[in-house]
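#struct-help
A.M.: can someone run this one for me? Single chain, 313 residues.
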Amino acid sequence: MKVITIALGGNALGNNPREQQENIDKAVPSLVDLITQGNKIILTHGNGPQVGMIYKAFNFAAAHTQKICRFELQECTAMSQGYIGYHLQKGIRKELQRLGMPWHVSTIVSQVEVYRHDPSFQNPDKPIGDFYSKEEAEAVMKEDPSQIFKEDSGRGWRRVVPSPKPVRIVEAESILNLLDHKFIVITCGGGGIPVVKDEEGNYRGISAVIDKDHSAALLADLVEAHFLIILTPVDRVALNFGTPQQREVAEISSSEARSYIKEGHFAAGSMLPKIEAALRFVEGGRGRQAVITSLEKAHLALSGKVGTRIYKG
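D.P.: on it. Structure tokens below:
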């Protein structure tokens, strides 16, 4: 039985709870089909739009009434883990019951340790929340200089926050225990709740968002996965993205991928972390493969007919 770690992009899940549940319900048969093919799966997901929406809602409300307080990003990530996990659990459980499969499904609200001196705290680059025009972004930054906005892959301007690299999954033993007992585990949502160790060895949350693709690679290592599947809104990775020379690729060796990174083919905060996470995974052990494809094509990801396959070489 092969183990597959699947990372769903937050943008692929939709822009509101209703749309998210609908998208999940459409995608769940593809995900569960990987189990019927004889595999064991573990899921993680992004939360860029969702955590931005939660953060914005609480801060907006707090500015208008003393009855509602502000929440930091770590608490907002925990909230997003809960409600995205809830939707995934509902959809997956329904499909499991339809097929008469004896698997269970559970979400683990998970913390991920980061280094307190990670360089990203001095150079925020992780996009979260809504897209703005340049004029709207500049107006927000003028009103609140603590918020930083950057242009995101030609799609508009988004707020950016620190995105430290993940070091360790705090709930690792719980994840492995559930996975060994026929549970489909949903964990490390939004990259995990970022925490650092204090002088006494206790964890405390820190205001940041860990890139879910890097946490997915860490999770794949933990469960000794054979495949890492990263699901996005696009079917395949493209070179020269957004230009007349744009070209989709079906497979990339790790050495080719590193050359493409140096040539600037992959946008930071978009495709770049997905490629980096795939490289970390495939170069971390023998016989590993990563596939980047769309949510709708998840069940075909191992066939070689869809997506971009990344392998060590």
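A.M.: thanks! The mean pLDDT is 91.
D.P.: also worth noting: Helices lie at 17-36, 48-64, 73-99, 134-143, 172-179, 212-222, 254-262, 272-282.
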